[in-house]
Amino acid sequence: MKLSVNVVVALAALSANAFDSADWLEQRMLLDREAERLCAAYAKYGALSTEAAESIIVPVEGYADGSVKTSVGAKRAQFFLVDGFIWGEGVEVRQFKRDGTIDMKLDADNCVVDRTTRSGWVEDHAHAEFRDEAVLDGDRVYFSAPEEYLKIYTNTVLRADGKELRSIRADYDHQNGVAMFDGAVELRGREGKNEYVLKCDQAFAFISGTNELRRVVALGGVSVKSGDREGSCDRAVFTRRDSKIVMYGDGEGVPARLADNSKRRSEVEGARITFWTDSEQVEVVESKVTIDTKGIKLPKGAKAL
Question: Does residue 198 surpass a pLDDT of 50?
Fold first, then answer.
């Protein structure tokens, strides 16, 4: 998953917080290499697995007091003790707090786990649940228990704060509350009676420790639908706290557009359009407004826009 320098700059400006997108992306590249290593390990040890044990659970990391921090269970598994790998089917990875409550759990169809790094590769489907009730599903997944990080290569679904985000690929950094989605991204949610859908090519989501989806930055081919309103733009920012979507033109002559398809039909264009998903309020910078006057009797001498 790659972003251009211009997109990274735009992202940093739009996110309006302390998030360092360039540094974060650099760290993700290191984990990408880890994902490649674990993917190769899955193929290697899967081919070597001929004497799998049934129904196993083993600790792979503990606290200083001896309690388990991370464990791996499997319906069928084979240990490669010299290399430190576990290859298994029906794998369950669990990460615990000191008091024994579950911090994170990941269930995988087929998986290899590196006991040294406490990371692994899932070849088929994986389902992850985190302490704050964020839920993540996907196919072909790299995970790191210490980093609380998952990289999904296809069929991503994230559910958090009553919202659902779908995409082809995704990087989910639970520790830092950041997720990056790539390819056919779709955000669905509801504010009061209004359901909204935001679609784009790429997106960043910022999630707080209380499972609140604080902000989504959408980039490329953005479309928005909220009730009777439909819009399109180059990039947009959704802020959960005030149920606000800010749409931006591309800065090169193509404005953001928002149409009202209710009975009063109208359309507005502007360099920046702000509207609220829980109200009819709209604010426009450098606006151009078109109103459908069909069926409306105008005063003598007046002209339709």
Answer: yes
